[in-house]
Specification:
Bound molecules: 7N-methyl-8-hydroguanosine-5'-diphosphate
Order of helices and strands: EEEEEEEEHEHHEEEHEEEHHEH
Strand content: 25-35%
Helix content: 10-25%
Strand order of the largest sheet: 10-11-12-14-13-15
CATH topology of the largest domain: HIT family, subunit A
Largest sheet: 6 strands, antiparallel
Shape: globular
Number of helices: 7
Distance between the termini: 67 Å
Structural class: alpha+beta
Oligomer: single chain
Number of strands: 16
Length: about 350
């Protein structure tokens, strides 16, 4: 199948779903035209799309001034000896618009070269109602998922195909159909193996915002709730080999990495997040992220820890399932026989 291409000028905005001045992101809903061909005719329809724009973080290279010492040279010599055009804010080509200068204080707008002025852009097309919910700014609530709630509310929900995000992108990666050239490391073992690759959210370049995910080859592991002592070798393998691969390729030490799983995840195929510790990646708050080292330790101490634990997670107020997780919902009632006896000898 031919690779999809997008022409941003054909996008039609429907509404802004979310924007954040701190993370400098904006997320919009709209449509792209789509051509459908039959044997005789070609019709143009539209497909709903979410577009996420994010201003990228500065890199050390952006503020390089070494070329300024070489007079009129138009090119810098990179470490590998190749010549690249200057791409720093401090270059002749950068335009400065003077807002005001007051004594020692200057205020400007700066228009740098396009090469260092890129914006990261993610497209989800065609998107579903569930994607729209995920990307829409909404009030969230924290709920406590007991094992009983997991079995009676979460698990049945996961069984309903339509409630889940499709995992096709995951299988495309595991089957080497997509993102093959982006793979950082692969252990092909069906039981202990995984693929480590840059996350969708990372531009793949700036180490300050490093973000990779390890996707397990085992197909039956959904989330934290699936993990028992049987999976300790898999988890330790991801930890050890993931850390080694990242050190080799990106020069990041294990003490500079935040390695964790989300609960609840958006995608119910077990994967582990690796992010640069100094980077406040989305989803690193304590109500969602569980450090892999803690997960391993909890299971070492109690083999069925994640089947017995009450695990918090956040849910959007507008989510139809929110009411089922509320403390006053009758779905909380544990079968009497299973209730622990408090104070029993
Ligand atoms: P999650 O904890 O299930 O959900 O993590 P979250 O998105 O709410 O954090 C799934 C991770 O997979 C996220 O960090 C996504 O950015 C990443 N991801 C999602 N998709 C659709 C892709 C993809 O197509 N390719 C890659 N490389 N990463 C993806």
């Amino acid at each position: 199948m031919a690779e999809k291409t997008y022409d941003l000028s054909t996008f039609r905005l429907e509404r802004i779903l979310n924007k954040n001045s701190k993370t400098k992101t904006i997320c919009v809903l709209g449509t792209f035209p789509s051509q459908q061909s039959s044997d005789t005719t070609t019709t143009t329809t539209t497909e709903p799309a979410i577009v996420v724009l994010e201003k990228t973080a500065f890199t050390d290279h952006d503020v390089n001034t070494t070329h300024n010492n070489h007079g009129n040279d138009d090119y810098d010599n990179d470490d590998d000896g190749s010549a690249t055009q200057r791409n720093s804010y401090f270059s002749l080509e950068t335009q400065l618009q003077n807002e005001f200068i007051n004594d020692i204080y200057g205020n400007f707008l700066c228009f740098p070269l396009p090469a260092i002025n890129s914006v990261k852009l993610n497209i989800i097309c065609p998107c579903t109602e569930k994607h729209i919910q995920k990307y829409t700014s909404q009030d969230i609530r924290i709920v406590l998922e007991t094992p009983h709630l997991y079995n009676t509310v979460t698990e049945p929900r996961l069984q309903l195909e339509r409630e889940q995000f499709t995992l096709d992108w995951v299988y495309n990666i595991l089957e080497h159909k997509k993102e093959v050239d982006r793979i950082i490391f692969e252990d092909p073992c069906k039981k202990l193996g995984f693929i480590l690759l840059p996350d969708f959210k990372w531009d793949g370049k700036n180490p300050e915002t490093f973000y990779a995910i390890a996707i397990v080859h085992q197909l039956n592991l959904r989330s934290l709730r699936s993990l028992t002592a049987e999976h300790l070798p898999l988890l330790r393998n991801i930890q050890t080999k993931g850390i080694a691969a990242i050190a080799e390729k990106y020069g990041l030490d294990e003490t500079q990495l935040r390695i964790y799983v989300h609960y609840q995840p958006s995608f119910y195929h077990l994967h582990v997040h690796f992010t640069f510790l100094k980077y406040e990646a989305p989803g690193t708050h304590c109500e969602r992220s569980h450090l892999l080292s803690t997960v391993i330790n909890n299971i070492e101490l109690v083999t069925d820890y994640y089947q017995r634990a009450t695990i918090p997670f956040t849910i959007k107020e507008s989510d139809p399932y929110y009411q089922k997780y509320r403390p006053d919902a009758d779905t909380h009632a544990e079968p009497i026989a299973k209730k622990p006896k408090i104070g029993a000898d």
